[in-house]
Amino acid sequence: MTGSEDPRLRELVLLRRVRDRIDRDYAQPLDVAALARGVHLSAGHLSRQFRAAYGESPYSYLMTRRIERAMHLLRLGELSVTEVCFAVGCSSLGTFSTRFSELVGMSPSAYRRAVGGQGTGIPGCVARQVMRPVRNREAGTGRGGLA
Question: Which residues of 72-104 are buried (b: 16+ CB within 10 A; e: fewer)?
């Protein structure tokens, strides 16, 4: 990067690195402080700028990625809810279930019963778009149902 480059553009590149790391390492123990250290920013500054760029905090983005992956694993039906919780990087079944219910609108067990087997044979990129969790604040946008 040259000295004449726009500082906002440089910061957006750093934010994209953070988002890419969350997408890649969602199952690893990640926290905002560690993510910020990775791009040489303070945790507070990273959180503010990430929210401004992507509309949610780094933690919310991480949890959304984890819940998306959990939804996929629950549709497959090969792991228990507890195994899915740990497979996606959550360390507390209670927190996982609460966040899952907030984003999906039902508990992980209820989701498994409702959609078990759905999405098999659909490419992962399509399934993620069709079955993506919707935050409660977005629920009124006309999206209905599970698929």
Answer: bbbbeeeeebeebbeebbbeeeeebbebbbebb
What is the C-alpha separation between 38 and 43, in angstroms, rounded? Answer: 10
Helix (H) / strand (E) element for 46: namely helix 43-54
Q: What pLDDT, on the 0 to 100 scale, is given for residue 133?
A: 67
Q: Are 134 and 143 in contact (CB under 8 A)?
A: yes
- What pLDDT is attached to residue 7? 85
- The predicted-structure confidence for 60-99, as pLDDT tens digits, reads as follows 999 999 999 999 999 999 999 999 999 999 999 999 999 9
Given phi > 0 = left and psi -120 to 50 = alpha, else beta, which region is 143? beta
